[in-house]
């Protein structure tokens, strides 16, 4: 049994003009110690999916269909009281901006100790000892001193390490990291990502990394899910997707990487922009931006086609596979 299994997940937001679907028919599994990347532009639904796993969708959003099975328990239908034993304990979340996570008027130690004492029956002294150990794990120098400092006294990279330490406090089974390095410079980004991979491997912790950067995903994750307009459009082994992207959108994301451009020329980009939830095109949502659009793309939602070890939601890929099979039969 997979550690986490998401089945046919749907999330909707109720608006005055009517409900709109932010996530549609999401399916994936995550094994213990496995690293999964969620990729896509802003508005693709990556963060909504991350929040949905912990049932943290704020009103007017709500889970309207499907299951989120964590060790067989459905988190989507679990009560808030039961979820408290899982949030921050069995499943931790690392947010994009550490200053939105850390309380500016409490020391690092106060915040870590309170977190530990909320989930475990231990003394304050023991909680402080564990907090210092976690700060050491994330390579914070002089943790015995840093633990008594306030967030504003630390650099951006140091604050992000503290947030990771808090995420590891309860020895979770899964860490959901929502673009954890966006606010940091490139050198610190690499250090933080390397640290997270090392900690996950050492503690056999599963990681869900939410990002828009396929370059980071290629270096960190084993499986990848590419999302567009609230739907999974390609998923499979990261290496396979990076080396042979099948969906035109995934190909566009790959071509948009700086290293894919010719030096001295403009960077490649996907024309147009992500549609709003109230203006998702009929058929394939990517059809207004696709260079390979066909008539069927305008009126029929593509199903999933197996391509190697990947699943791709694209009419073109399906047609190419049919043609290849017909040629083999001849």
Helical content band: 25-40%
CATH topology tier name: Rossmann fold
Strand content: 15-25%
The CATH homology group name: P-loop containing nucleotide triphosphate hydrolases
Based on helices, strands and strand pairing, what is the structural class?
alpha/beta
Radius of gyration: 21 Å
Domain module tally: 1
Low-confidence stretches: none
Q: Count up the helices.
A: 12
SSE pattern: EEEHEEHEHHHHHEHEHEEHHEEH
User: Which whole number gives the mean pLDDT?
Assistant: 90
Number of strands: 12
Globular, elongated, flat, extended or rod-shaped: what is the shape? globular
Quick one: CATH class? Answer: Alpha Beta
In whole angstroms, the N-to-C terminal distance is 41 Å
The largest pleated sheet is described as:
8 strands, mixed
Strand order of the largest sheet: 6-7-8-3-9-10-12-11
For the record, the CATH architecture stands as 3-Layer(aba) Sandwich
């Amino acid at each position: 049994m997979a550690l986490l299994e998401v089945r046919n997940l749907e999330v909707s937001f109720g608006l005055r003009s009517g409900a709109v679907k932010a996530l549609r028919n999401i399916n994936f599994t995550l094994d213990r110690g496995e690293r999964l990347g969620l990729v896509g532009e802003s508005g693709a639904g990556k963060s909504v999916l991350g929040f949905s796993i912990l049932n943290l969708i704020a009103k007017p959003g709500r889970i309207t269909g499907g299951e989120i099975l964590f060790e067989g328990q459905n988190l989507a239908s679990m009560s808030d009281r039961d979820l408290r034993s899982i949030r921050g304990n069995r499943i931790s979340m690392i947010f994009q901006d550490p200053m939105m996570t850390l309380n500016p008027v409490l020391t690092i130690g106060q915040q870590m100790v309170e977190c530990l004492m909320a989930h475990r029956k231990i003394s304050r002294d023991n909680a402080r000892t564990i907090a210092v150990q976690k700060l050491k794990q994330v390579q914070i120098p002089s943790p015995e001193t840093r633990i008594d400092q306030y967030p504003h006294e630390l650099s951006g990279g140091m604050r992000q390490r503290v947030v990771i330490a808090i995420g590891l406090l309860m020895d979770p089974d899964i860490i959901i990291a929502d673009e954890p390095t966006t606010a940091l410079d490139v050198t610190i980004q690499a250090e933080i990502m390397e640290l997270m991979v090392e900690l996950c491997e050492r503690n056999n912790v599963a990681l869900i990394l939410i990002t828009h950067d396929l370059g980071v995903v290629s270096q960190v994750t084993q499986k990848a899910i590419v999302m567009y307009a609230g739907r999974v459009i390609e998923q499979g082994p990261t290496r396979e997707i990076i080396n042979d992207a099948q969906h035109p959108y995934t190909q566009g994301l790959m071509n948009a990487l700086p290293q894919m451009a010719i030096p001295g020329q403009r960077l490649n980009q996907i024309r147009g922009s992500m549609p709003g939830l109230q203006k998702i095109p009929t058929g394939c949502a990517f059809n207004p931006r696709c260079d390979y659009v066909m008539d069927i793309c305008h009126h029929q939602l593509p199903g999933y086609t197996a391509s190697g070890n990947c699943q791709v939601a694209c009419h073109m890929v399906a047609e190419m596979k049919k043609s290849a099979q017909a040629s083999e039969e001849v």
